[in-house]
Every structure is written in C-alpha cells, then in structure tokens.
Amino acid sequence: MGLNYDIIALDVDGTLLTDAHVLMTETRDAVREAAHLGAEIVLCTGRGPMNTIPVLEELGLSGTIITHNGAATIDAESRKVLHQYEINIAELERFMMFCREGRHHFDVNTAFELLVEGQLSTEVAAMYSGYKITPILRDISLPLPADLVKFTVFGEKEAMDSVEMAWNGWTHGLQHIRSGDFFIDVQHPEASKGDALKQLAMLRGVNPSRVMAIGNYFNDVGMLTFAGLGVAVANSPDGVKAAAKELTLSNEENGVAHALRSYAW
C-alpha cells in the first residue's frame, strides 16, 4: 500500500479529539496506520506541550510537535524546545490591562508553563481541567517571564467577539488570532502553524505536495493552505472550509480517520 504524504499535520482540539477531548478508537487506529506506513505524524496545536505530549503518547507515537500555534516547536521525547518565538513584553502590557479592566480571564504561557493571576472561577477551573492543564498561580507583583510565547484570553463567545472587534482596531507589533469560539491568542507576529510546518518540511526535505494537514479553526488556515492537501473537518467555520482543498466528517464522526483513509493511501 503506497502512502501519498510524508508529513501529516493534525490539529488536536476540534479535529483529532471530540468536543469532550476524547481520542476515539477509529481515529487512533487510522493515525497509527498512517505512521506505520511511514508518515511523520505532527500534532500541530494551540495547546502547550504539557497537554499535547499525552495525546501523542495515547496515539502510541513520539517525535516533533508544533505547539502554541507554531510559537514553540518541541521534541516530545527529550522535551526540548527546538524553536520558539518570544513575545515582546512591553507590547503585551496593553492586552493585559484591557483584560483586567474588562474582567476577561487570561493566561500567559512559556513553552512549558501556563500562568494565571488571582483565583480561578468555577467555569475557568473546569475549562483548564477539560484540557488537562494545571495552571500556575502567578504573583502579579513579580515581573513576567522573559520567554513568553503566548497570551490567551478566554470567555463566552459573545464576549470574545467583542474583544476581537476591539483588538482589530488596534495597531500593535504582535498578532491576535481566534483559536476557538471561546479563545483568542496573542503571539509574536511571525508565529503560525503554517510557518512552523513549512520550516519542519524544509528541515525534512519534504516538498509541500507531500504534506497533508487537517484542521478546524482559523489558526489552522496557514497550515491548510501550505500543505499539498489541506482538509477541514465538517465542524469548521465556513472561512476555514473555504481555505481547505477537501472536507471530511466532523470531529465527532472520526473525521480524521475518514480523511486519512480517503486521501493518505
């Protein structure tokens, strides 16, 4: 059986996993089959490595993972940072003040740590628990770590729509990107899943035509358009579907497995 792609990049939440963050057996088996046939499976996610590596392990795989929307590329086995884009802290202060004044929950992330200010509400604590994240409570009087790679604001969709609209009117030296209905990420302007995947393909000597990517949200568009075959799951917004070359079933219907068996071999 011939394999059509050398690198297969998979978004995690809303794509590889169900909405309850479960890896279904059919999807797991299809991903393992692709790896067995010789594809390099690269999880390409907005998550940090600490809650991405367990997903990779559940797949029975190891290797390179692209985390924090491309801001940190990690070797999962050694847990070493291969490359990261760090945020300008001075630029970030404006976003932090906006969130404090508007009472929007936010966190700041180094490659391996997620830090929050103050006490967590029940809703926020449940969100972190669902993503299997253990936040570190940060003393607001202390300076921020110098090696931040991502700032994330979390809230109801309507609140995030309002925040996004406000930030769209700002001029600043960072980028903000909607990574889900309830999340907006702020990062280095050059950090993206698409750019990180392009760098990895060049390092491996793999032509983009031999790269397949599957995703579901706006932070996936870069990798969907870079890949020779970009596939959007059925639960993607219309703008993401428009950026993909093919569509597959939803994340609740083993969409990744369906796409791999339809196109990868």
**Main beta-sheet annotation:** 6 strands, mixed
Q: Would you tell me the structural class of the helices and strands? A: alpha/beta
CATH level 3 topology of the largest domain: Rossmann fold
CATH superfamily of the largest domain: HAD superfamily/HAD-like
Which band does the percent of strand residues land in? 15-25%
Notes on the structure:
The protein has 265 residues and is α/β, with parallel strands linked by helices. The chain has 2 domains: 7-84 and 191-264, HAD superfamily/HAD-like (Rossmann fold); 89-187, Hypothetical Protein, Haloacid Dehalogenase-like Hydrolase, Chain: A, domain 2. The chain is built from 10 helices and 14 strands. It has helices spanning 12-16, 25-36, 53-58, 89-102, 122-130, 157-168, 193-204, 221-226, 238-243, 255-264, and strands at residues 7-10, 40-43, 64-67, 72-75, 80-84, 105-109, 114-117, 136-138, 150-154, 175-180, 183-187, 211-215, 229-233, 246-248. Strands 8-7-6-9-11-10 form a 6-stranded mixed sheet, covered by helices on one side. Strands 2-1-12-13-14 form a 5-stranded parallel sheet. Helix 2 packs parallel to helix 10 (255-264). The model has no long low-confidence stretch (mean pLDDT 97).
Features:
265 residues, alpha/beta, Rossmann fold, Hypothetical Protein, Haloacid Dehalogenase-like Hydrolase, Chain: A, domain 2, 2 domains, 6-stranded mixed sheet, 5-stranded parallel sheet, hydrolase activity
Summarize the structure.
By secondary structure, the protein is of the alpha/beta class.
How does the SSE layout of this entry go?
Blueprint lengths: L6 E4 L1 H5 L8 H12 L3 E4 L9 H6 L5 E4 L4 E4 L4 E5 L4 H14 L2 E5 L4 E4 L4 H9 L5 E3 L11 E5 L2 H12 L6 E6 L2 E5 L5 H12 L6 E5 L5 H6 L2 E5 L4 H6 L2 E3 L6 H10 L1
GO molecular function, one term: hydrolase activity
EC number: 3.1.3.-
Keywords: Hydrolase
